[in-house]
Amino acid sequence: MTEAAAGYVMGHDDRERRRLALQASIQNPFTQELFLRAGLATGIRVLDLGCGVGELSLIAARIVGPQGSVVAVDIDDAALEIARRRATEQQLLNIEFRREDIQTYNPDSPFDAVVGRHILLHTPDPLRLLRAVHAALKSDGVAVFHEFDFTVLPADDPELPLRSLAKRLFRDFFQRALGSADIGGRLFHLFCAAGFGHPQCRGEFSIEGAPDSPFYEWVAESLRSILPRAEGLGLVEAAEVDIDTFADRLRQETVSRRSGLPAPVIIGCFARKW
């Protein structure tokens, strides 16, 4: 994503890369299942857009095997170095990481599959990007995206005031800052408008509550990333969040009330190029 377009609001620093790792520990099982349902298989060539520290790239590389390959692109050099190191450590030698802006990247040959997670959420023009994805695919190739929908808010029982604060801020911030709080629910229409046929979409979310869950810190670090801009938009005052203690307070609140803590709804969508 182009930083000039102010698309990626979460930042490009070590804290953000750690936040992505926390997020992956919760969401990777959902994404792996989505890839398999979408038809990723041994021997195919995959493009991972906005790969970050390589979570989706590593999943795809295992699925396609040594006979297949993955090209993974991102604008963050430090994240790419982490991704390369992880691939080497895991002996996944079928991934090529490239520094590219996904808004302007023009592959020199088509792919069997193009994948992305939480990419359209931060994209100024998601339809334009999906049309570029369509053009980057072989005939009958498949596009696979995982995106949040912050307008679908599963209830927690008993109610958790801190979780209510967080879900309100995520919904209002992404709608005000990027107009994309509902991007997950818009995937079906966007895929059709981009030229894909018969999208298949499914919404899912995990429910956490164990004392040692990474969920509390993931929520807190995600809030930390948007807090300065959310405060600037008048959505919250920093003192109301008290971000340095938020994870511990959310954990205590959840465990003490024996409540389930639902994650934001994530919509998985895939469709083939006609």
Overview features:
274 residues, globular, 9 helices, 9 strands, 44% helix, alpha/beta, Rossmann fold, disordered N terminus, seven-stranded mixed β-sheet, 21% strand, two-stranded antiparallel sheet, single chain
Descriptive account of the structure:
- The chain has 274 residues and is α/β, with parallel strands linked by helices.
- It has one domain (3-273): 3-Layer(aba) Sandwich (Rossmann fold), CATH 3.40.50.150.
- The protein is built from nine helices and nine strands.
- The protein has helices at 14-38, 55-64, 77-89, 126-136, 161-178, 187-193, 215-232, 238-241, 243-256; strands at residues 45-49, 69-74, 95-99, 111-117, 137-149, 196-204, 207-208, 261-262, 265-273.
- The strands form two sheets. The chain has a seven-stranded mixed sheet with strand order 3-2-1-4-5-9-6, with helices on both faces.
- Helix 3 links the parallel strand 2 and strand 3.
- The model is unreliable at 1-7 (pLDDT under 50).
Summarize the structure.
By secondary structure, the chain is of the alpha/beta class. It has helices at residues 14-38, 55-64, 77-89, 126-136, 161-178, 187-193, 215-232, 238-241, 243-256, and strands at 45-49, 69-74, 95-99, 111-117, 137-149, 196-204, 207-208, 261-262, 265-273.
Could you give me the name of the CATH homologous superfamily? Answer: Vaccinia Virus protein VP39
Strand order of the largest sheet: 3-2-1-4-5-9-6
SS-derived structural category: alpha/beta
Query: What overall geometry do the principal axes of the alpha carbons give?
Result: globular
Beta-strand fraction estimate: 15-25%
Q: Radius of gyration, Cα only, in angstroms?
A: 18 Å
CATH architecture verdict: 3-Layer(aba) Sandwich
| Biggest sheet overview | 7 strands, mixed
CATH topology: Rossmann fold
**What's the end-to-end separation, in Å?**
27 Å
